[in-house]
Specification:
Elements lengths: L1 H7 L2 E8 L6 E4 L4 H4 L3 H6 L2 H6 L24 H6 L4 H7 L4 E2 L18 H8 L1 E2 L8 E2 L13 E8 L1 H4 L2 H23 L13
Parallel strand pairs: 1-6, 2-3
Antiparallel strand pairs: 2-6, 4-5
Length: about 200
């Protein structure tokens, strides 16, 4: 992670797991089931605390602001980053894999099990404080208050559904689709060269 930050100015952590309670892959960004019940309009109007809470919130910008603190290219609101067409879930849907949250599966139901993120996402997206003048990051307590503009790590917890994990062919397709979606997601926000442009991974 430190090498990625030194080389590119940012890092993305993908915490990969499996779950058996839903026929779709769950994407956790430290937004709870209750948080995701909000409409896009309401979600985008929440104060800076929700953007700071979300493990990819530093890529978004509240309405009325020009850009997120980490973004180099896009100007998306929180709802667009989390479940819009160009969100990680939206890109995975385009590749043929159902995900939640995404444009077609906006939110879990209130009484459903949903893995919305855990220690790894919190530790690296909210607890790693990078200062350019230092050669090493500064460790903070998870949830500690600090300037969101200094956050240089985004994270997602990926909980893959059983049908994908139990089928070797589907596993291979999913792995390729996830790699492609992550690359496209980073391209949208940071202007990285896409795998498609390089003739790389396809689903």
């Amino acid at each position: 992670i430190q090498k990625a930050i030194q080389s590119f100015g940012f890092a993305m952590v993908v915490d990969l797991h499996g779950q058996s309670h839903r026929p779709a892959t769950e994407l956790g960004y430290l937004l709870t089931t209750e948080d995701l019940q909000a409409t896009d309009e309401v979600l985008d109007q929440f104060g800076p605390e929700l953007y700071t809470k979300c493990s990819i919130g530093s890529l978004a910008h509240p309405k009325g602001h020009t850009a997120g603190p980490m973004t180099r290219k896009s100007c998306m609101t929180l709802s667009q980053v989390v479940r819009g067409q160009q969100s990680l879930g939206g890109l995975m849907e385009t590749a043929g894999f159902k995900c939640i949250p995404s444009p077609n599966l906006l939110r879990p139901l209130q009484d459903e099990t949903y893995f919305w993120g855990a220690f790894t996402c919190a530790r690296y997206s909210r607890g790693l404080h990078w200062k350019a003048e230092k050669s090493e990051p500064e460790d903070l307590e998870v949830g500690a208050s600090f300037d969101a503009g200094s956050r240089r790590v985004v994270a997602v917890q990926v909980e893959v559904e059983t049908a994908v994990r139990s089928d070797p062919v589907q596993r291979t397709k999913f792995a390729a689709a996830l790699a492609f979606a992550v690359q496209e997601f980073l391209t949208l926000h940071f202007g990285l060269e896409t795998l498609a442009q390089r003739g790389g991974v396809t689903s």
